């Protein structure tokens, strides 16, 4: 049975960290829509997440579907493992 | 609409096969102050709340689904390879008889989830105060589960989830301030 | 001194069946004292923030069980 390499966990954690900053800033901006520093920081991490997502997907397949990620050939969205399995 | 992402919000690790912990954790899956109730409460209230706070309810409601998936992951891993004997010894015999290893929206006592756990009053202040209370109750539940757990990896994830309740409560309190339309809302010490 | 735990001493009866817990504590997390969040509060790094469960240091209030080693410093 194939298992994911250690790099999967490292890259995933990098993405989780950046995405977490984005979650926190999103909730903060929902109640502070005039904080320009926070908006700039938000946009900075949007770019950062794009970069990490691209790197992760090139090695481990799509993170999202319905067209929010490109597909490999054959269709690889269904590929294991799912997040609760790793 | 919602887009699924093949990623947990926070890494979930489990140290030992311990189905009894799963029995306690299911409180946060299908209990009154659990993550399912939280997600459905906020996402349902947002249709009848002033536009200024719809975004916040939408985003916190969405984050609650990520938390639901983390709890599901813990329960799944804690029970995945448990024998029927172990399930029985953990107090999950009744669950096993009805559901085998399947997850079910029920509380720690095995009572199925019900919509009566959540309220939608149509009054923005009443609804937001319910939301603040729900976050504090969920925070307390995480405390009590951490107090009973000797699994350091599970506790690490539960600590994350407890901290999220604090932040959500903070944002709901700010939402109340916004709806009060107080000018001097900068700082209240 | 400001803490995020408060305590009280419940009445102890000579007829209480269990060994008395002299002191009971409860949690009073930081958000109860901050009010509307002011801008530019000190932040954690992204990896620390993930571990802490919050981006802002002022809201960090970790809870540890009786079987765990407590770590009140930088989240790791």
Automatic annotation (TrEMBL), chain A:
<keyword id="KW-0167">Capsid protein</keyword>
<dbReference type="InterPro" id="IPR024207">
    <property type="entry name" value="CotJB_dom"/>
</dbReference>
<feature type="domain" description="Protein CotJB">
    <location>
        <begin position="10"/>
        <end position="85"/>
    </location>
</feature>
<keyword id="KW-0946">Virion</keyword>
<dbReference type="InterPro" id="IPR016571">
    <property type="entry name" value="Spore_coat_assembly_CotJB"/>
</dbReference>
<dbReference type="Pfam" id="PF12652">
    <property type="entry name" value="CotJB"/>
</dbReference>
<protein>
    <submittedName>
        <fullName>Spore coat protein CotJB</fullName>
    </submittedName>
</protein>
TrEMBL record, chain B:
<dbReference type="Pfam" id="PF05067">
    <property type="entry name" value="Mn_catalase"/>
</dbReference>
<dbReference type="InterPro" id="IPR012347">
    <property type="entry name" value="Ferritin-like"/>
</dbReference>
<dbReference type="InterPro" id="IPR007760">
    <property type="entry name" value="Mn_catalase"/>
</dbReference>
<dbReference type="InterPro" id="IPR039377">
    <property type="entry name" value="Mn_catalase_dom"/>
</dbReference>
<dbReference type="InterPro" id="IPR009078">
    <property type="entry name" value="Ferritin-like_SF"/>
</dbReference>
<protein>
    <submittedName>
        <fullName>Protein CotJC</fullName>
    </submittedName>
</protein>
<comment type="similarity">
    <text>Belongs to the manganese catalase family.</text>
</comment>
UniProtKB/TrEMBL annotation, chain C:
<dbReference type="InterPro" id="IPR020256">
    <property type="entry name" value="Spore_coat_CotJA"/>
</dbReference>
<dbReference type="Pfam" id="PF11007">
    <property type="entry name" value="CotJA"/>
</dbReference>
<protein>
    <recommendedName>
        <fullName>CotJA</fullName>
    </recommendedName>
</protein>
């Amino acid at each position: 049975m194939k298992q994911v390499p250690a790099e999967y966990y490292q890259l995933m954690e990098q993405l989780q960290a950046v995405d977490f900053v984005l979650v926190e800033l999103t909730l903060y901006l929902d109640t502070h829509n005039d904080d320009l520093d926070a908006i700039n920081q938000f946009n900075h991490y949007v770019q950062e997440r794009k970069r990490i997502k691209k790197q992760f997907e090139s090695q481990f397949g799509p993170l999202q579907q319905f067209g929010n990620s490109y597909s490999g050939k054959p269709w690889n969205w269904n590929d294991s493992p799912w997040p609760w399995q790793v | 609409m919602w887009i699924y992402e093949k990623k947990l919000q926070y890494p979930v690790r489990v140290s030992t096969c311990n189905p009894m912990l799963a029995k306690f954790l299911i409180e946060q899956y299908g209990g009154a102050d659990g993550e399912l109730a939280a997600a459905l409460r906020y996402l349902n209230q947002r249709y009848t709340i002033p536009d200024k706070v719809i975004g916040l309810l939408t985003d916190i409601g969405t984050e609650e689904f990520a938390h639901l998936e983390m709890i599901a992951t813990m329960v799944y891993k804690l029970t995945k390879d448990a024998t029927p004997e172990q399930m029985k010894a953990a107090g999950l015999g009744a669950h096993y008889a009805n559901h085998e290893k399947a997850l079910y929206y029920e509380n720690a006592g095995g009572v199925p989830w019900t919509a009566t756990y959540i309220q939608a009053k149509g009054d923005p202040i009443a609804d937001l105060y319910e939301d603040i209370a729900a976050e504090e109750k969920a925070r307390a539940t995480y405390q009590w589960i951490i107090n009973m757990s000797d699994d350091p990896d599970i506790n690490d994830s539960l600590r994350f989830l407890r901290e999220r309740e604090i932040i959500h409560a903070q944002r709901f309190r700010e939402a109340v301030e916004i709806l009060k339309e107080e000018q001097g809302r900068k700082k209240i010490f | 001194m400001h803490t995020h735990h408060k305590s009280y001493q419940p009445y102890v009866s000579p007829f209480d069946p269990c060994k008395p817990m002299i002191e009971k504590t409860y949690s009073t997390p930081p958000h109860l004292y901050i009010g509307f969040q002011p801008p530019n509060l000190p932040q954690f790094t992204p990896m620390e923030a993930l571990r802490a469960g919050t981006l802002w240091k002022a809201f960090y209030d970790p809870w540890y069980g009786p079987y765990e080693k407590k770590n009140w410093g930088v989240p790791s």
